[in-house]
Structures are given as C-alpha cells and as structure tokens.
C-alpha cells in the first residue's frame, strides 16, 4: 500500500487475524470517526457540554438514561466502581483511593476474575474497592452471592468475555436479581460486545463498552446506565478520573462511531467475512494434520471465526510454531492464539482490509507446505513459550 505510513517509521505491516487486540492497535477506526476527530481537533469546546452531547447519543444507542466517554473500558470499571463508593461526595472523590471503611466492597464471581491485558480486579482496587470473590473458579451458586452481600457492599461487577469461565456461574439475570434484592448496583463489563442494549435490558445499572473494539472508534471507553450512577462516575473526573481522561477528539470520535454503528451494513460485513472464512477453509481442507472449523463467537456476537487444529505428527509442525512462523517475516500475519497449547488457534476475519484474506491464505499454504516438506517435526517445547513470553516486554524500549 503506497499510503501505508508504517514503512516510513520502520514498523512491520501487520495483518491482524486475531480480532480487536489492544496490542495491535485495537481495530480499524471507521472513516466517520476519523473525520469527526479531525474536525474538532482545532476547535475549543466546553468539555462538559461535549460530554452532555455524548450522553444523548450513548443514551439513544444503549437505551441508558445517560452516559459519557472515558479512556477505556478498564477506566470505566474504575470510575463506575468509584462512583458507587463515593456517591456525589466531592471530598470523598478527592480522597480516593483512600476510602472511609463503611462501604467499599465489590462482589465479583471468581470465574470472572480474568485478565484482558490487565487484571479485572485491579481496576476495582484502583478505585478504592475491596474485591470480594464469590464462589469458586467454576461454580457460583445463589447462596455464595446472597451471603456475601453486607452493608459494606458498594457494587457487584459482572464480566462478559470469552476469557471468563463459561459454565457453572450465575448468569446476568440471576446476578442482577440477587444484587437488586439487597439494593446493590450491578456494573457490567461488556467491553467487547456488539449488543449495546441487552445488558441494561437485563437489569444492569451500568454497562461499559470499549470504543475501540467492534465500534471502530478511537481508544476510549463508554459508560452507560442509570443517570445518578453515571453522574457519580463522571464526577470522578475531578479525582482518579483525571489520569483516565480523554480529549475532545475521542469524545466526538466515539459519538461519530456510535452513529456510524447504527447505520453500518452489519449483514454485508458478515457476508464478506464469511467469504474470507470459506477461502481459508478451501485452503486448509485436505491438508494432512490440519482441521479447519468455522465456529460462532463464544459470547454470541454476530461473528464467526475459524478454528485451525494442528496435529503435529502429520502437519510436521505444532500449532504454536505455525503461529510463530506466520508472525515472522516481512508481512506478519498475527493469529488468535490464546489457547494454542490445546493445539489450535483461530483466524478472526473482523479486522481485515479487503485483499488481505488472500495473503493470509497464501501464507498458511506456504508455511504448511514448508513444514510438510521438512523431515523433522517442528516442535518447540511448549514450556519455552511461557518462559519467554515477557522477555521482549522486559527489555523494552530496547
Ligand atoms: C478489552 C476488554 C477490556 C479492556 O478494555 P479497554 O477498553 O481496552 O480498557 C475489559 N474487559 C473485557 C471483557 C475486554 O474484552
């Protein structure tokens, strides 16, 4: 691509078949958001008024009473939790994360304490919340939650994610029912979900979304919900929210991304993505040791991915070595490999520019042909993967 700025500053031209990954720059920002950001950047505005306008757009799209834009969904968790601890007490807001001890406990199911790149529970602790884990990793029952609620309980946080344990836990409707029976507000982390209405409809008091994931907005977080709780979260901008603030371009960029989302040709995009998946399936079917399955998104987003299962004895390469081979070279193809120790990875079509699907297919064929032609089985011990996982980060910026 001639207009690709990456070569100019010496960055590798990544092809992202892993989904909306923060570590790769999240998503392709929609043209409407780019235009909005360029238009507002040279102007002065009254930020609280701009956030009032954002509130109206967020309310319209989510069904919430109010909303605002912050730095990230992670920031949204901290601000929403902080709001439930401080209420609208401006002095308490300035004192965070130190809190008066009477009310700062935040319930979370143990099976929801995952890492989205940082730990869920840390975003609660940053706000002065004391995390109270309920249940066990793979089971939460009503009695766990009912008995955990005390007069110190400020909120209950519910996480929607492919990372959470997906069986044996309380569903959102039950979680809300138990919390509301004792007057406890429910905050839902729905960072990566398409459905902007469902969780509030199911009774959540606050729903949080990332602006930079499926919405294709700038890096940001959306806080939506009950007006008083949203206001109490917004007031944190005079406290811990200061370091999580966004500029005018992000607020206006998110407004534009939300409006574009309303008009987006979701069916057309799905059809295009299905075409990519079919191409990859044709490329992979019939190859020794390779199984390609098209699977729906685990949290019900309207999106399919391809699971590529690799049997090393026949393919002559492990799933993780294949992922590494695709990631190396002039044009890195980065696959979704969270569970690669199970001998599979996923190809996610949602962040491809048209034309890149054929490069992905060609690179898959190339690396698989090369492995088959090798006399040895390419098999790095899986232990080395976890051992070296953070090496690069610990050397940064070198
Ligand atoms: C991505 C993600 C986050 C973090 O979102 P940011 O907006 O990048 O902070 C939080 N929770 C879940 C479930 C996520 O998928």
UniProtKB/TrEMBL annotation:
- Asked whether the keyword tRNA processing is assigned, the reply is no
Pfam families (UniProt xref): SelA
Q: Which GO terms describe its molecular function?
A: L-seryl-tRNA(Sec) selenium transferase activity
Q: What are the N6-(pyridoxal phosphate)lysine sites (modified residues) in this protein?
A: 213
InterPro entries from the entry?
A: PyrdxlP-dep_Trfase, PyrdxlP-dep_Trfase_major, SelA-like
- State the needed cofactors, names only: pyridoxal 5'-phosphate
Record keywords, A-Z: Pyridoxal phosphate
Family named by the database record: Belongs to the SelA family.
Q: What is this protein called?
A: Aminotransferase class V-fold PLP-dependent enzyme
Q: Which organism is it from?
A: Tianweitania populi
Q: What is the lineage of its organism?
A: Bacteria, Pseudomonadati, Pseudomonadota, Alphaproteobacteria, Hyphomicrobiales
Gene that this sequence comes from: selA
